[in-house]
Amino acid sequence: MRYAIIGAGQIGQALAHAFARKNIDVAVASTRPPEAIAPLAKSIGPTVAPRSLKDALEADIVFLAVPFWSHRDVAKAVESWSGKIVVDVTNAYGVPLEQLDGLPSSAVIARALPGARLVKGFNHLPAGVLAEDPSVKGGRRVVFLSSDDDAAIAPVAALAEQLGYAPVDLGRLDEGGALVQARGNRWTQLIFQDLIKFD
């Protein structure tokens, strides 16, 4: 499996640190050329490789960690999203509901990436917490996952386990997934809930 993180902001960097901690190769890209983020990638670790946006989007699992409306620029970078697993790490806090046509933010992103197998995940924790080691007091930090594609959840959950997290499947995007999606100027119930699972 090939992995990529699109976005080099605080959340993208937190995810890159998670991969680096476990020595898992990951491509990082943004709308800037790879040489612009090369020093950042190098500072995180040797398994974090700067790539062009087009190259990074060839990965099997892509983490979309960009400001919400920037997903439209990313959407144009490849001809087809068919079959690609996209983990939506964005938050649409402050985006007026009418701009989302009343839909959950992940549904808006799914519409922009036709054919993609969208999984909402890794978005409920602040960047600083996400960047920390997920092993806490003998347990593992929880990450919530939701998708309308049941089969897409499994490889993302397996990767979350590899990264040291405890994945929790919330079900469909408009059901359990709605608990981790900002609505207008309101954070929903599971946002910022830093939960630990003890095995």
UniProtKB/TrEMBL annotation:
The UniProt keyword set, sorted, is:
Oxidoreductase
Q: Which Pfam families match?
A: F420_oxidored (PF03807)
Q: Name one GO molecular function term.
A: cupric reductase (NADH) activity
Q: Which domain of life is it from?
A: Bacteria
* Alphabetized InterPro entries for the sequence: NAD(P)-bd_dom_sf, P5C_Rdtase_cat_N, STEAP_metalloreductase
Q: Which residues form the Pyrroline-5-carboxylate reductase catalytic N-terminal domain?
A: 3-91
Q: Name one GO cellular component term.
A: plasma membrane
**What is a biological process (GO) this protein takes part in?**
copper ion import
Q: Which PANTHER family match?
A: DUDULIN-RELATED, F420-DEPENDENT NADP REDUCTASE
- Protein name as catalogued: NADP oxidoreductase coenzyme F420-dependent
